[in-house]
C-alpha cells in the first residue's frame, strides 16, 4: 500500500523559512517522480513543484520560483520542500504526491496523495 | 484564475447522473491527457480518472471520463450521498510549463 506522510508544517512569520518532509513507503521511491501541490484555505489545488527520479531536473510554479527548493533523498525514501521568504499567500495545506511518470511527459498525473501538512504564514 | 474552467457546482438527486465539464485550450487539454481528482470533505484529493477515461483499481464504473478537442467531461451515474465532494480536473500545460488544475466543482446530492 502506497503511503505518503508529510511533516514540518506550522506557523511562521512573513519572510521566514520552513522545511517540509514527505516520508514515502509501499513503492520503489527512487523509481518515481514526485510533486508538491498546495491548497489555500477554501480554495482549489495549485501545483507547486516536481522533481525527477534522480533529483534533477526540478520544476517550479512561477509563484514559488526562486523561493522554494524541492529535493529528495532516495536512500531515505523522503521528499523535501525548503520554503524561504514566505508570504501570507503561501498559507495552505501542502500535499506530497507520487507522480505517474516523469514531469511534462505524456500521461503525467498525480497518482497518490499524502494527507497534507498545514503551513500558516502570519505575523 | 484557473487555466482550466469548471462549473462551481452541480447537483442531482440520489440515483441520478451528473456531468462536470473542464474547458481548456490547445496548450493543455487539447494535447495532453486529462485526470480527475475527488476530494471528499476534510480529506486529501484522490485520483479518480487518468489518461482521459481510465479508472484506477477500486474506482467504480459509475465514474467515467471523456475528452473532446479542448474540453473534458467527468460523469457520475447512480449518484450516492458518498459522492458529495469537490472534483478537480488536471493536466499539464506546455505553454506555461506547469501542471494545472481546474477551479473545482462541488457536487451536491439533493
Topology of this structure?
The complex is a heterodimer of chains A (123) and B (110).
Chain A: E1 3-7, E2 10-12, E3 18-25, E4 34-39, E5 45-51, E6 58-60, E7 68-73, E8 78-83, E9 92-99, E10 110-113, E11 117-121
Parallel strand pairs in A: 2-11
Antiparallel strand pairs in A: 1-3, 3-8, 4-5, 4-9, 5-6, 7-8, 9-10, 9-11
Chain B: E1 9-12, E2 18-23, E3 35-39, E4 46-49, E5 63-68, E6 71-76, E7 85-93, E8 98-101, E9 105-109
Parallel strand pairs in B: 1-9
Antiparallel strand pairs in B: 2-6, 3-4, 3-7, 5-6, 7-8, 7-9
Structure description:
- The complex is a heterodimer of chains A (123) and B (110).
- Chain A is an all-beta fold and 123 residues long.
- Chain A has no helices and eleven strands.
- Chain A has strands spanning 3-7, 10-12, 18-25, 34-39, 45-51, 58-60, 68-73, 78-83, 92-99, 110-113, 117-121.
- In chain A, the strands form two sheets. In chain A, strands 2, 4, 5, 6, 9, 10 and 11 form a seven-stranded mixed sheet that branches.
- Chain A starts with a strand and ends with a strand.
- The mean pLDDT of chain A is 97.
- In chain B, strands 1, 3, 4, 7, 8 and 9 form a six-stranded mixed sheet that branches. Chain B has a three-stranded antiparallel sheet with strand order 2-6-5, with no helix packed on it.
- In chain B, strand 3 and strand 4 form a beta hairpin.
- The model of chain B has no long low-confidence stretch (mean pLDDT 97).
- With 110 residues, chain B is mainly β.
- Chain B has strands at residues 9-12, 18-23, 35-39, 46-49, 63-68, 71-76, 85-93, 98-101, 105-109.
- Classes of the chains: A mainly beta (123), B mainly beta (110).
- At the A-B interface, strand 5 and strand 10 of A face strand 7 and strand 8 of B.
